[in-house]
Amino acid sequence: MDAFERGSVDCPGGSLSYLEAGPRGSGGSDAPVLLLMHGVGGNARSFRAQLEGLSDRFRVIAWDAPGYGESALREPSLDSYARAVVELLDALKIQSSHMLGHSMGGVVAQGAAALAPERTRSLILSSTFTGYHQPQGSPLTESWQARLRDIQSLSPAEFGRARARTMLATGAADAVRDEAASIAGEVRHDGLKAASEMLHVADTRDIARALAVPTLVIIGEEDRVIPPARSSEMAELIPGANRVTIKGVGHAAYLEDPASYNASLNNFLD
């Protein structure tokens, strides 16, 4: 990670940490900004291959969501997380950006695009959906409660390996499994709990129907976390959405097949 600039900014809702690469980060001229938002089992490190592979064209910024990395916790609501996105742009003096949200990050990206459409140049929704649409105050599902028990009872390495098994396609290389497990092993209990509570009640269906920015939906062919049918349901709601399915990958196409993933981004952003 030495090639990337790590930063942290103080924002009205709490500090936010991030990784950055590209022309602006290295002192070059202005470049379009690509903001990357990870899933519940990730952090800014998830997007190593995008920080490396896209920074020749873009100022690439990968955030740590609230409660992840060195970012402060926030209220577990979609509005709170969307406001964090806008606060990060404000702190970095960025007027607008292309926004990529993966899984949880895709729900947040939809919220941010609705909150600040003038700050959103385009939207890339990766292996994501419209939230779980549950009533405020209702209990988390047993699967989420089990995951929260696991993160407290297992060692970070054990928890990371368990998450990697779920995230990746059966044919994923050992090096990819090791990297996914290493990243998932850094997840904080408080961050995971807040994220699960946010997703539990999030409902972006009306937001998706009203999106008026160019949008790409990326689907992992073998995704078991957000199955292709669920991503497709979201894509059907978005006016004029482009859609691409990456073959042979599970829930972490950005890591499992970064060449195809980055090519899809470049083709769309062109």
Detailed description of the structure:
By secondary structure, this protein is an alpha/beta fold. It has one domain (5-269): 3-Layer(aba) Sandwich (Rossmann fold). The protein contains 11 helices and 8 strands. Strands 1-2-4-3-5-6-7-8 form an 8-stranded mixed beta sheet, sandwiched between helices. β7 (215-220), α9 (228-237) and β8 (242-246) form a beta-alpha-beta unit. α2 crosses α3. The chain is globular, with a radius of gyration of 17 Å.
Summary?
With 270 residues, the chain is α/β, with parallel strands linked by helices. The chain has eleven helices and eight strands. The protein has one domain: 3-Layer(aba) Sandwich (Rossmann fold), CATH 3.40.50.1820.
Question: Could you give the topology of this structure?
Answer:
Elements: E1 5-9, E2 16-21, E3 33-37, H1 48-53, E4 59-63, H2 78-91, E5 97-102, H3 104-115, E6 120-126, H4 142-153, H5 156-167, H6 174-184, H7 189-201, H8 205-210, E7 215-220, H9 228-237, E8 242-246, H10 253-256, H11 258-269
Parallel strand pairs: 3-4, 3-5, 5-6, 6-7, 7-8
Antiparallel strand pairs: 1-2, 2-4
Helix pairs in contact: 2-3, 4-7, 5-6
Helix share bin: 40-55%
Number of strands: 8
Structural class: alpha/beta
C-alpha Rg (nearest Å): 17 Å
How many discrete domains? 1
Largest sheet geometry? 8 strands, mixed
CATH superfamily: Alpha/Beta hydrolase fold, catalytic domain
CATH class: Alpha Beta
User: CATH topology, which one?
Assistant: Rossmann fold
Proportion of residues in β-strands: 15-25%
Number of helices: 11
Question: Strand arrangement, largest sheet?
Answer: 1-2-4-3-5-6-7-8
Low-pLDDT stretches are: none
Question: Mind telling me which CATH architecture this is?
Answer: 3-Layer(aba) Sandwich
